[in-house]
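Anyone up for a design puzzle?
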């Protein structure tokens, strides 16, 4: 069974992309590629006006694949993180709205995926959300800092990025990681409803507005991602 699945919901107007590895929903190169391909297919489908990116029960994503991140292969680490950056940028610059169904914990790359989505619906409960890189001895990549400055609350961004502070779902709304918090059983339903409403927007107008409004952040992210990849040849 594939870790990443895709189906059409809301009378075919919404592409539901689900990540479920039965564990932490860690982002490997293959999973990132499968999510990216599913988004491309959704954008190419004229009937689809929005997408939902959903996790499994209790987990949206625990971040990048630790087998790669802890193996000590610098080139592999840089390439995996850059692949993740490309995916986050694709969500943020997508020609259709992308809604996150944050079904539980979302840390590190999981939190970055949330920041790349238009609307983020989170599950209420004892879940942790945020950027824990500094706490585990890592420096958040420059492209991620670009996005954090754009999406996180000015009152929270320093603590979330520099102090690696993880927050619960309620505070995640104030911080800027989430937009809505609902009961866990309602997360997917609410996310699909949000996406179905966004799917009624004028598609060309949405795409052009995203291109103009988000281009400064997307351009900065692209420059930093290119620099990261060039650092390892």
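Challenge accepted. My sequence:
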């Amino acid at each position: 069974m594939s870790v990443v699945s895709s189906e059409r919901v809301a009378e075919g107007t919404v592409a539901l992309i689900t990540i479920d590895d039965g564990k932490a929903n860690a982002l490997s190169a293959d999973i990132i590629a499968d999510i990216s391909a599913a988004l491309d297919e959704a954008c190419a489908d004229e009937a689809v006006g929005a997408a939902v990116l959903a996790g499994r029960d209790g987990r949206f994503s625990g971040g990048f694949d630790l087998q790669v991140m802890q193996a000590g292969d610098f080139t592999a680490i840089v390439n995996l993180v850059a692949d993740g950056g490309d995916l986050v940028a694709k969500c943020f610059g997508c020609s259709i709205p992308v809604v996150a169904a944050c079904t539980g914990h979302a840390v590190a790359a999981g939190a970055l995926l949330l920041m790349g989505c238009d609307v983020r619906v989170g599950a209420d409960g004892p879940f942790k959300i945020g950027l824990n890189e500094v706490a585990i001895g890592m420096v958040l990549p420059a492209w991620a800092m670009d996005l954090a400055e754009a999406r996180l609350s000015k009152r929270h961004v320093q603590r979330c990025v520099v102090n690696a502070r993880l927050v619960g779902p309620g505070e995640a709304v104030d911080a800027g990681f989430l937009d809505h918090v609902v009961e866990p059983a309602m997360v997917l339903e609410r996310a699909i409803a949000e996406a179905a409403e966004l799917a009624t927007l004028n598609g060309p107008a949405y795409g052009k507005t995203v291109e103009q409004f988000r281009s400064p952040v997307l351009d900065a992210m692209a420059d930093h991602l290119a620099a990261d990849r060039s650092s390892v040849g």
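A detail worth pointing out: The chain has one domain: 4-230.
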